[in-house]
Structure formats: structure tokens, C-alpha cells
Design a protein that fits this description.
With about 375 residues, the protein is α/β, with parallel strands linked by helices. The protein contains 15 helices and ten strands. Helix 1 packs across helix 5 and helix 12 packs across helix 13.
């Protein structure tokens, strides 16, 4: 099944039929829908890494509105001709691309015979293929795959930058360096790969009513090894949301203070200024702010936690860890959001560097509770 970017959550009847046809194409194909439809004559773009690109559009006009036998051109016919020209334009925007992009137009309200009449002139003048809805439903997947036209890397990058600018990665936003031996006078551009762009554009539809927000709230977990692009996905998604929903506030939380500072610097260099409805901060800075809103004062952090650990640990002699490792283990418990002794006993500690038997874990948990009680009496936090 082809990869749809973004996923089609809310579709009309005609869009549902189109999706059923395109879903029959294998998963090497990517179906991209521009997020700014007013900027694109095409409704969709289909891409294959080897076969190339195809622009696809659905036309709802009837044959009576487009009949070339009419004595005078109607506004509908004029608009239709202008759209055909615009559809084939992207592939001609750079030197070295003698032919335009492959284009498939589905005449949704025309019969096959009527479509053949309409197709004669556009096919010659613009290299555009017109098919009826009936033909598309029967042969659409084969037509799409067969009409894909290879495109130079330069043209493909220009097309992505024009219709999908939210997928472009500014050089300042990556620490990687790409060395390409190329003596031509041009600048290389970088874009999110298919899976990254899919994750960025997942669940973009906001609820119609804010009262439904709690019911429509969803959590998406993106996993990957270090350097796989998780932060890049989060940043691009946050920027995209600020653009699509300018009246909404977007909060991007990151656990690492240096990463936040570096990210803010890169965004200011690439964009000049952050969107007014975007806020980027560490999770703990945000949590501290919520504490202040709730209780009216800032939380006071304990500065003598190691001393408290040394004071309480003699009550549990089976704990063999030194004070430093023990403080780190207590931090691991809190950062993992472990809420009970049973959860701690079942928690996976792979990568911690040392093992703890069940009895030792129980004593560490008891020590944690004692520390929490002491800090609570003082009105401070660990």
C-alpha cells in the first residue's frame, strides 16, 4: 500500500474512491497532498524513488461546461485550460528539463467517450493524460504507475521546496555534513525522508470544537536510535502546526537545556524569529511554571539530598551501592515515573551498569519513601 502524506483522515466521497485506487499501489510509492491547496493546481503528487513523479488532479466539471464545439469560450473552459497549463509547469521550471511533469486528470463528471473528446487537444499541447472516473476506477493504479516520469534531482528538490516547504531541512538544523563531489554551481538541499515527513504530518486535523479536545486527544510515540531524526520530526511538526493553526498555541518540550538553547539559536538563524504562537522550553522549566501557577510560589529544590541519603541509608544495610550510585538510582526511579514498589521490581534496568536483586530493590524503594517524607516535611523537592 502506498504511503499517504499526510494520512487522509476526513475525506469526501470522491476522495475516498481515489484513495481506494491509490492504495492498490505498492509501498514504494508516496502519495503527497499539498497542505496549501491554493498554491497547487494538482490535488496530489505521486512519487516513486526510481520511476519518478506524477501530478494528479480531479476535475468536477461536466462535458457541457467544457465542450470544445461551443462557439464561444466559457469561463469554465478558460479556467480548465489555465489549470492544465499550471499542472504541467513544475517540471519546466529549470534548465535541462525539456518536458513538463507527467499529469493525470480524472474527469469526474464525464463519460469515457466525452473524456476522449476533451483529451485530444490537452494531450497534444500539454502532454496531459485525461481519463474518466470509470477508467480511473478500473485502471487507476496501473495508469499511475505507468505514467510516472523520471525527474532530475534538481527539479525534484525544486518541486518539494515549492509545494512541500515544511519538509525542507535548513542546513543550520542538522549537525551532519554531506560531502558530494559536484563541480556544478548549485547549492544542495535536504528534505525529510518519507517516514519522517509522514510522522510530522500525522493527525494534523484539530477538533472542530475545543470542547471535544479531550475526546480527540491522541498520543503518538516516535522511537528511534540516537541521530535518527526524532527531534527533527518534533521541530518540523511544531513549526507546521504553528502555520496551520495560527490561533492555537504550540508548546515544544525537550529534556535537555543545551539542546533547547541550540535549537532556539538555529531557528532564529534560519527563520529570523520564532513564530509568535510557539514556545520551546525544557520539560522541567514547564513543570516548574505549572507548580507556580498551582501553588503561587516557586518550588524549592533540596540542595542536601546526598546528606539525606547518608542519614537514612543505615536503616537498610542490604543496600551496597555507594552514595553516588544510589542517588542516580533514585533519579532513575523518578525519571521513569515508577509509581509503586511492584512497578520498580518489574522495571527493566538494562543499561544502568549494575544489577539489583529484588530484595535490594525493595530496600531502595523504602529508602526513597523515607527521603520523600523528609523532603515533604521541609516543603522541598528532590
Amino acid at each position: 500500500m502506498a504511503l499517504f502524506i499526510p494520512e487522509w483522515q476526513r475525506v469526501s466521497g470522491s476522495e475516498l474512491q481515489i484513495k481506494r485506487v491509490l492504495a492498490l499501489i505498492d509501498d514504494a510509492h508516496v502519495v503527497r497532498r499539498p497542505l496549501r491547496p491554493q498554491d497547487s493546481a494538482a490535488d496530489l503528487f505521486v512519487q516513486h524513488p526510481a520511476k519518478g513523479w506524477l501530478a494528479l488532479a480531479a476535475c468536477p466539471l461536466s462535458f457541457a461546461e467544457l465542450d470544445p464545439a461551443q462557439l464561444f469560450d466559457s469561463p469554465r473552459r478558460t479556467e480548465f485550460g489555465q489549470r492544465l497549463i499550471a499542472l504541467s509547469t513544475p517540471g519546466r521550471e529549470h534548465e535541462g528539463s525539456p518536458q513538463g511533469m507527467a499529469v493525470l486528470v480524472v474527469m469526474w463528471s464525464c463519460t469515457s467517450d466525452e473524456t476522449r473528446v476533451l483529451a485530444r487537444e490537452p494531450l497534444v499541447r500539454h502532454g496531459t493524460r485525461l481519463v474518466s472516473r470509470e477508467q480511473f476506477m478500473q485502471l487507476g493504479s496501473k495508469l499511475v504507475s505507468g505514467l510516472l516520469e523520471p525527474m532530475s534531482e534538481r527539479c525534484a528538490q525544486a518541486l518539494l521546496g515549492r509545494f512541500f516547504p515544511e519538509s525542507e531541512i535548513a542546513l543550520e538544523q542538522t549537525t551532519q555534513r554531506f560531502w558530494v563531489r559536484d563541480n556544478s554551481a548549485r547549492l544542495q538541499r535536504f528534505f525529510l525522508d518519507g517516514e519522517q515527513e509522514w510522522a510530522v504530518k500525522l493527525d494534523l486535523d484539530l477538533p472542530d470544537e475545543q470542547a471535544q479536545a479531550s475526546a480527540d486527544f491522541s498520543l503518538r510515540l516516535v522511537t528511534g536510535v540516537a541521530g535518527s531524526g526524532k527531534t527533527l520530526i518534533a521541530v518540523h511538526r511544531a513549526l507546521l502546526l504553528t502555520e496551520l493553526f495560527p490561533t492555537q498555541r504550540v508548546l515544544l518540550l525537550i529534556h535537555n537545556t543545551p539542546v533547547v538553547a541550540d535549537l532556539l539559536d538555529r531557528l532564529r538563524r534560519t527563520r529570523g524569529a520564532l513564530p509568535s504562537n510557539l514556545e520551546v522550553m525544557t520539560f522541567f522549566a514547564w513543570a516548574t511554571r505549572q507548580w507556580h501557577r498551582m501553588f503561587g510560589h516557586w518550588p524549592e529544590l533540596s540542595k542536601d539530598l546526598p546528606a539525606l541519603v547518608r542519614h537514612h541509608r543505615p536503616r537498610w544495610p542490604e543496600i551496597k551501592l555507594d552514595d553516588g550510585l544510589l542517588v542516580g538510582e533514585l533519579a532513575f526511579i523518578d525519571e521513569s515515573l515508577i509509581g509503586s514498589e511492584e512497578d520498580y521490581l518489574a522495571a527493566k534496568r538494562s543499561g544502568r551498569g549494575f544489577a539489583l536483586r529484588a530484595g535490594e530493590r525493595s530496600q531502595v524503594w523504602a529508602l526513597r519513601n523515607a527521603l520523600a517524607a523528609s523532603l515533604g516535611q521541609r516543603g522541598t523537592m528532590a
